[in-house]
Amino acid sequence: MKIGKLFKAFTVGLGVMGFAVFSASAGTINQSGGSGTTYTDVLGDGQGSASLLRDISSATISNDANNLYITLNMNPGANLSTGGAFNYIIGITSGNPSAGGDTSANATTHGNAYGRSISFDSSFGGMQDFVGIFGAGGSGSGASPYTSYGFNDYAWNTNGVSLTWSKINTVASGQPLSMQPSTTISNSINLTVPLSDFAAGFALTAGTTFDFDICSTGTSGNQTAYDSLVVQGNIQGTYSSTAQYNATVLDQYTIAVPEPSTIVLVITGLLGALAVRRRKA
After folding, report:
1. In this predicted model, which residue has the larger pLDDT, 54 or 275?
2. Is there a contact between 132 and 214 (Cβ–Cβ < 8 Å)?
């Protein structure tokens, strides 16, 4: 391949990578950012019990070319190892009202892959991708502490016909809780989620903006959200364990585009490989 054609192919590829999909305009965005952004929630708004594991403090999101990196921080006094069993869910959508994602109108799923009473409003297009986080390596008690947290991820309506959730990947355990900065208490979960896991649904590629929320919830049935990263206060005025939480406010994140220095290195590598090939010829 000639250098001119090689460079043209590469620039076309960059154009595709930089394409940004539709972002929410009908709904409300609370916080937005790009790689390395920390999204905060007020403390003390976890509902249903006094357990601090219900109370989300913040989340930091970043990415490289292959993975989405998520750190979920609970109340500083929460102990993820021995504080009990909870699930944390990450819902993702393009924000396009016509996206056709899962909504609360679905009486079977209630709007998400775990069947909790948690959904995204139809003005955001419903939920399209989902990451469910669970404790691993124990039962969450003092006698049997969790050693890490794993996750499942799902995509909605992957074939455009079946209105169901498809499991894409299961990571039985993630980064050990013993690797947290604190040596006395574990209040953070670190996840590495492959960007390729989202290809079947709402694909997350460089330049893509997505809307999301992270909620704490129970481990079974149609339990509601106890807390939301987005909502700065109590989700419910009078708490009900099965009341539908239908998000009308979300946070927003944009997948980082490769830095110019990285692009230059890639071009240099391609040209170098071409030169070697010519010498061998």
Report:
1. 54
2. no
